Fold this sequence. Notes:
With 270 residues, the protein is α/β, with parallel strands linked by helices. It is 48% helix and 11% strand. Strand 6, helix 8 and strand 7 form a beta-alpha-beta unit. Helix 5 runs parallel beside helix 6, helix 6 packs parallel to helix 7 and helix 7 runs parallel beside helix 8. The longest helix has 19 residues.
Amino acid sequence: MNTELESTLAFHSMHVQGSPLILPNAWDVASARVVLAAGARAIATTSAGVAWSFGQRDGNHLTRTSALDAVRRIASSVAVPITVDIEGGYGATPSDVAVTIAECLDAGVSGVNIEDSLRSIDEQERRITAARAAADDAGMPLFINARIDTHLHGDIGSTGWVEETVTRAASYASAGASGIFVLGALRADTVRTLVNATTLPLNVAFGPGTLSINELAGAGASRISAGSSIAEAAYSVAQHWASAMFDNSDAVVASPPTLGWGALNGLVRD
């Protein structure tokens, strides 16, 4: 069995209901090494963090070339499975999605997130089908995490919201998805409803305003990720410190950073 196949199969096995895979999302080599040092068993990217690091807006503005450049850098720097956020798949057609998947596999990834951006169910099914076919053609059981963006509707947790989310989950599962990612599942009863409505592992988000890791796990989540929250926090620290230097000439640094020069330099060593 080749190393990439072993890594991908191992990644699948990490999704356990009630004992979830924890993924604090990274956006570059340094953040990936920090996450790995914290105890991560796999690395997940955040498309927002990657886009911001390239000076681009999040929301399908990043090019496939830039996204895959970041992926290759991160994948070559860690020895654990990596799953990458490919937004909508970087292209207008299912064929474009297939090209993106082929390039991700060439970079050595074990999984991808692909969002529906509230496309029609039929259209998103075709895109997931194309992604699965590209992985099958490469002989890799890629973990395709299908993100359902019903949170964009608002009214999260309502009967209509749950029904549409469940309908999309079933359709994406039949198209070849390996897992379902639902943003906005903020209550334990909502998470349990979604868990019971699909046979696929459920990925939910952790961050400001969410339940705790233990509460999400207790509700049945198989995967918990941070999305862009950590990148947002990192840039917020930069903004706070920079503003203090300009706004208050009497500002002093109360305490040194938790990760100083030596620690960070050690984490990104060759």
